[in-house]
Specification:
The chain is α/β, with parallel strands linked by helices and about 400 residues long. It is built from twelve helices and 15 strands. It binds pyridoxal-5'-phosphate.
Length: about 400
């Protein structure tokens, strides 16, 4: 009989989206004539852009001809794509060497798999509320997690606590679920803290393309010292609607070298290269080819037009919250709007209230951690008409 990874017993039931679906279908059965509007999901609704689709078609045709056919690709991903991503970083004010970029099939997989590089007995700092992947992947490995609180007092942007000695730090900015975005000074504080503790920051920039306020960082590498302490994850999922097409990238600077217990210097870049090439055979060529089209200036302009569409939804949602004087974060640099449940309700209570009285579905904050239990997340990934209708109903509630 195999001995099992019993850490799996320590995982909490991942019931958030299942429970939402259960409550919604129960309501639908009882009220078949009512039109439910879903502003809960964290998935895009706009199709791929013209440039991405044209590139996909072109790459498919290349696979039909022996002269242009591609089999296994380079381990880190195609150079044409790594160069295109590096050029995109440069336009955003960050200097990222294409040789430090690894192409992958998702920021979810990479933020989870990165734990392979670290021993069990590290102290892991995780913000609360948080994207549940960081928590669950560390519980699977039996690592100790220390939570840092994101609250209304710190605008859901927790800052380092010098009394805590952490080894790994997860940061997500712009944040899922709160939509809050760190500025450069705040990230500099995290970098200084990480460097003084010899800690590594695992920076999830999945929503960087939604940053709209000038001066806010799209990448942690826009800030001095980041290459000495930070790994960055990013994805085309939210930027370019690749949630079903699958392509992401992870940057591991070569400066990240630490001394092992036997005195050997180990490079995280080299370790990830070994892991990636041992356990992964690459993102499909046709997808990488389409991704490269996304990172051209024209390709990104098309993505930004889609993101502008989502931003208008965020504005529609925020406008009603402003009128109601309901405190919230997000919406400006993020597709998420995170607000305090009205009338002192708890998040599941508000979920039911909104479903029953307005037929609008959102995401209860409790699903993202203790600090979310009085908060609620709405997403801007819907259509204008349904978002307007949902907020009209919301407006009439209070
Ligand atoms: C959506 C999302 C991602 C992207 O995941 P993919 O696997 O690339 O689709 C990463 N991080 C956060 C916080 C997200 O919300």
């Amino acid at each position: 009989m195999p001995l099992l990874n019993e850490n799996y017993q320590n995982l909490e039931e991942s019931y958030l989206f299942a429970e939402i679906a259960r409550r919604v279908s129960k309501y639908e059965e009882a009220h078949p004539d009512q039109k439910i509007i879903r502003l809960g999901i964290g998935d895009v609704t706009k199709p791929l852009t013209k440039k991405a689709i044209a590139a996909l078609h072109e790459a498919v045709d290349m696979q039909a001809v022996s002269e242009t056919f591609k089999g296994y690709g380079p381990e880190k991903g195609y150079e044409f794509l790594r160069n295109a991503i590096s050029a995109y970083y440069k336009r955003n004010g960050a200097d990222v060497d294409p040789d430090t970029i690894f192409i992958s099939d998702g920021a979810k997989s990479d933020t989870g798999n990165i734990t392979d590089l670290f021993a069990k007995d590290n102290v892991v700092l995780v913000p609360d509320p948080v994207y549940p992947v960081y928590v669950d992947t560390n519980i699977m490995d039996g690592r100790k997690i220390v939570y840092i609180n994101g609250t209304a007092e710190n605008n859901f942007l927790p800052m380092p606590d010098p009394s805590i000695k952490a080894d790994l730090i997860y940061l997500c900015s712009p944040n899922n679920p709160t939509g809050a975005c760190y500025d450069k000074e705040q990230l500099k504080c995290w970098i200084d803290y990480a460097r003084s503790n010899q800690a590594v920051i695992l920076f999830d920039a999945a929503y960087e393309a939604f940053v709209s306020q000038p001066g806010l960082p799209h990448s942690i590498y826009e800030i001095e010292g980041a290459k000495e302490c930070a790994i960055e994850f990013c994805s085309l999922s939210k930027t370019a609607g690749f949630t079903g097409t699958r392509c992401s990238y992870t940057v591991i600077p070569k400066e990240l070298v630490f001394t092992a217990s036997n005195g050997v210097e180990m490079s995280l870049h080299a370790m990830w290269n070994r892991r990636h090439s041992t356990k992964f055979n690459g993102t499909p060529y046709i997808v990488q080819y389409a991704a490269a089209a996304v990172f051209t200036e024209e390709g990104m302009a098309e993505c930004q037009a889609n993101i502008d569409y989502y931003r208008e939804n965020a504005r529609i949602i925020s406008q009603v919250l402003d009128q109601k004087k309901i405190p919230y974060t997000g919406g400006v640099n993020s597709p998420y709007i995170w607000f305090e449940c009205p009338k002192g309700m708890e998040s599941w209570e508000f979920f039911d209230y909104l479903l029953e009285n307005a037929q609008v579905v959102g995401t209860p904050g409790a699903g993202f951690g203790e600090n979310g239990k009085n908060y609620f997340r709405l997403t801007a990934f819907g259509q204008h008409e349904s978002t307007k209708e949902a907020m009209k109903r919301f407006d009439q509630l209070f």
